[in-house]
Please model this.
Amino acid sequence: MKSEAPAISATSLPLPRKQFRGFILAFHIIFLGALACSLAARWQRPGWSWGTADIAILLLVIAQAGLYLRFFATRRTPGYPAWGGYFVTVMVLWLVTWRMERSFEWALLAYLGQLLGSMPPRYSLPGTAVAVVVYLPLKLGWDHITHMGPKEWLAWLGMALGWTVLGLFLHRLAATSLERAQLIEKLEAAQIQLKEAARREAELAAAQERERLARDLHDSLGHCLVTLSVQLETAQRLYAVDPTRAGVFMEEMKQLTRDTMEQLRHAISGMRNSVLGTRPLCQALRELAAEAGSAGGLKLESQIDPRGDQLTPVQAEALWRVAQEGLTNIRKHARASQAGLRLIVEDEAAQLTVSDNGLGLGEADQNWPGHYGLRGMRERIEALGGRFEARTADGGGAVVEARIPLTKAS
Model:
């Protein structure tokens, strides 16, 4: 079973990063510097000479410094058993060092502080009690302990309790700071996720805007170019037999060209007004049907529900665009002689149907590279929660159906 991680580890940052690094660096310098100063104090005593004991003390101090660096100055995160082994080992090393050189007595307080600060109370308090029970007899001797008065007992007890309380306070402070650091990490991660989501949303909005512009250009500019092409062919044939009527067609083409340029400017600037303008949907559909029938030489039957004028501008424009694209496709591709345009408005939905008796609609026709017509119609209708279908009819010809759900507000 994997042991718990200690309450404070080298990888945890209970303080802001710069403050934490500065605090840890200062603690390292003070502790290791104090070990070095204790050695230097021994070596500076009058009459000192290098001997076996000094070599032993030096090796003991190096061992303690190495273990300290291993557990407190690296990014590894030992479990509680490893920490327990560290404190038992350094306490034994310190005890031997202290018995050989009394100037290292202060290190006991440093190790107890490390114990209380890095281990939870259920481990640090018993460990501290054991260390004190071992330390006091060795320092004072049993004879002195048995003859201590109440004041001396209170002094030693007060010092032990004070140091314990300070250690527990530092442990709690570190634990609270660690919780704060974890919350900060979560907030930073959430902030990164929000930024990433905002970036993706911006990219999606840009893609949707490009799709919208492509649809608008296809629906407006493409339709007008088809009309211009048909009228130019008609005018070309009429010039030889009826120049006056051909001139009328030319004037109509001029006006259509101006209208197309205006629509193009609005589409590019993204500030396009509704193509219906102030016209009701039913009137716009009848005019579209009459124009398509006259320009394409079609026998076109239309059935327009007058309740279509009650639709919202967005719904009306979407259905009008479907009708426009459907009739344009009939004139361009269907080779049909008859066509139909029908709008039915019910309480729950409005349905527009465009049909013809031409060649029909194959699977490849719906997936032409760069072909925005059918895809644009589908996107417009589905954006309103509707359903779009384009298929070949059983008796031949193509059928395009767009159904938009209606709410009470609509």
